[in-house]
Specification:
Elements lengths: L2 H16 L18 H5 L11 E3 L13 E7 L4 H17 L4 E7 L9 H11 L5 E3 L4 H5 L7 E5 L5 E6 L4 H15 L1
Parallel strand pairs: 2-3, 3-4
Antiparallel strand pairs: 1-4, 2-5, 5-6
């Protein structure tokens, strides 16, 4: 093995172990600072579009979810950063579902193997996901939200407005507080 090949192999193994990403090759967000620009615009949440399958639910639409707080979580099961956020999303669902929170996972694949419904179903089982998940194979919901990163979370208030947006891992306490505040304001 040449020295150059050995160095590249070591670098790739190091990135895999640490969860690092290669800019321009992997589109996962490296930033952990929440983006709240959508809240300033108070934009209406787009409808779910181009969904090929729904898991754990009948088909949902934003209009029917008015009166609820909705967490839309863009993810894909092949993304390490997404997998790292799943325990936090499932914890939020368990904590607030009986208080009016609806979590909708929007699985938008990055790679061809992630388009398989059976692979996605296996991932849902593996990660204990029981909340509704939309399979967005054509990225139509992704594009409607003008999303750019895996993972990304959007919090929608009871009036259907996006009030919080976060890209990447982290800010779990801020997401929890935002959801809690919205649900308390409704009671």
């Amino acid at each position: 093995m040449t020295f150059k090949l050995l160095a590249v192999s070591a670098a790739l193994i190091g990135m895999a172990v640490t969860g690092a990403v290669i800019p321009g090759i992997c589109d996962e967000a490296a930033r952990t600072v929440p983006v709240v620009a959508a809240a300033a615009n108070n934009e209406s949440a787009p409808e779910f579009a181009g969904i090929s399958n729904w898991f754990n639910s009948k088909p949902l639409n934003i209009a029917d979810l008015r009166g609820k707080v909705v967490l839309v979580d863009f993810w894909t099961y092949g993304c390490v950063n997404c997998v790292n956020t799943l325990p936090h999303v499932t914890d939020l669902y368990a904590k607030y579902r009986d208080k009016g929170l609806v979590v909708v996972g929007v699985h938008t694949p990055e790679f061809p193997f992630e388009r398989s419904a059976s692979n996605l179903q296996a991932a849902l089982k593996r990660h204990g996901i029981t909340y509704p998940v939309a399979q967005d194979n054509e990225s139509r919901t992704w594009n409607a939200y003008r999303n750019q990163y895996w993972p990304a979370q959007y919090i929608i208030d009871q009036n259907g407005k996006i009030v919080f947006q976060h890209e990447g891992e982290g800010s779990y306490d801020q997401i929890d507080r935002t959801i809690g505040r919205l649900l308390s304001a409704d009671s």
